[in-house]
Amino acid sequence: MAKEREKKLYVAILGNYAAELKLLLTTLLLLCVLATFLQFLPSRFTISASDLRFCISRVTQTTPPNATSSSPPIIKSSLTSLPPSPSPPLPPPPSEQLLAGGIIKRSFNPYGSAAYNFITMGAYRGGLNTFAIIGLASKPLHLFAKPTYLCEWVSSAGKNSTAAGYKILPDWGYGRVYTVVIVNCTFPEPLNADNSGGKLVLYASTSGGGDASFNITDRIEALIEQPGTLDTSLFTSKPKYDYLYCGSSLYGNLNPQRVREWIAYHVKFFGPRSHFVIHDAGGVHEKVLEVLKPWMELGYVTLQDIKDQERFDGYYHNQFMVVNDCLHRYKFMAKWMFFFDVDEYIYVPPKSTIKSVLDSLSEFSQFTIEQMPMSSKLCLTSDYGKTYRRWGFEKLVYKDSKKGIRRDRKYAVQPRSLFATGVHMSQNLAGKTTHKTEGKIMYYHYHGTIAEKRETCKILINSTETAYEKTPYVLDTTMRDIAGVIKKFELRMIGDRLQKTRQ
């Protein structure tokens, strides 16, 4: 009886702890499987005590099942695998060595990279056998070395041709880290005459510049012509536009009202066969874009986003590269091409037109334009209380009359005669240049007004002559007198959509 009683007691105990035994055995089995699995992991994978404490701390942050509504919110987290430990840094190369004879040899160890060898902005045909590649290159490379360029035409028909690249440096002396380079590729025969397609390849070699131990040559596919896309009539046909404006880089916080006035004036001045190429280097913000949009919709304005050029430290937002790209991009689309800024207004005297003036200068490939510098602060007393309603060129009516000083001139060209261009004139052209244009054509310059957001009129004067800050000024109402005509023209062309534009 006693044995049976003990047996029943043993069975009862096992029955009471059966669940706990199952859990214990399952846990032991999982630990054995985990121990086997860990043997196959990489040696760098370890679980430290700090890792376990991190896991435990995360678990303790969760809300217990019986938490009330006043308990803090549940914090859910997921553990991500830690990145592998970084490789130990390489020991620095020896800075010096002791050679036989007691000579100490010093070493120079370069890190990082220098300026790029070549940065392309565009490549364009200049005819049946010639091309222009526009870009930037390291200024020290061109200043202290003699980099070379080789051009290759890779024909889709299998016939290749090579030519030496002739470089032009239109901003020489102005570049910063980078200087502008125009590479002219002129081949001995017409290329892609059968319109089968091909591509222009530029080989840019440092030729001992930079690191003299290396002669690095970069292969650049500058231009690709798909089969059937070459229109050779472009080189001989009448240009699409009589006048095309190539704008420099626009940057900064521009005044939309000043831009509005400038574009309305010049569309009226140049007429229906004109076009304006605007380059946005960060200056065409939302309000300025609203001003340009109506003229873009009418086909007068092309806006190009060139903000990426800010990565490369060139002179004045790389304006030399920008105007050269515009020159070659539109070379065969315009009879005359103008280069000036958005605070400058081209003007011809009464009884003449822009057409009659340029017809009289047709024998020249280039002419420069006289400057009329206007005060950006002096206005008429009669405008008191009304200056905010006046347009900029309408209320700024005092001209700098100082004599005997050289002033910057702007210019216009017949683009088919140019190989490269600058900001104030071109020195790389075929044909003649004239500067004797006084009395024929001029430009009124309102310096410092394009980015001014406050009222420009600082001093009101009731006189035909005055002196301000040691500079003599005379009253000149030439532009003021035509402001009403420009306002009516804008209203007729685009309606009243810009009437609420302000500073």
Describe the protein's topology.
Blueprint: H1 2-16, H2 18-38, H3 49-60, E1 96-98, E2 104-106, E3 119-125, E4 130-138, H4 139-144, E5 148-155, E6 161-168, E7 178-186, E8 198-205, E9 217-225, E10 241-250, H5 256-270, E11 274-280, H6 286-297, E12 301-305, H7 319-329, E13 334-339, E14 344-347, H8 354-360, E15 366-373, E16 378-380, H9 392-395, E17 398-400, E18 410-413, E19 418-420, E20 428-429, E21 433-434, E22 442-445, E23 459-461, E24 465-468, E25 471-475, H10 478-481, H11 483-494
Parallel strand pairs: 10-11, 10-13, 11-12, 15-21, 15-22, 16-23
Antiparallel strand pairs: 1-2, 3-4, 4-7, 5-6, 5-8, 6-7, 8-9, 13-18, 14-22, 15-18, 17-25, 19-20, 24-25
Helix pairs in contact: 5-6, 5-11
Can you tag this structure with a few keywords?
503 residues; alpha+beta; Immunoglobulin-like; Spore Coat Polysaccharide Biosynthesis Protein SpsA, Chain A; 2 domains; nine-stranded mixed sheet; 25 strands; 24% helix; transmembrane helix
Task: Give a description of the structure.
Helices cover 24% and strands 27% of the residues. With 503 residues, the chain is an alpha+beta fold. The strands form 6 sheets. Strands 10, 11, 12, 13, 14, 15, 18, 21 and 22 form a 9-stranded mixed sheet that branches. A 7-stranded antiparallel sheet has the order 3-4-7-6-5-8-9. A hairpin with a 7-residue loop joins strand 19 (418-420) and strand 20. It starts with a helix and ends in a 9-residue tail after the last helix. 31% of the residues are buried. Mean pLDDT is 87; it is low at 6-14 and 43-81.
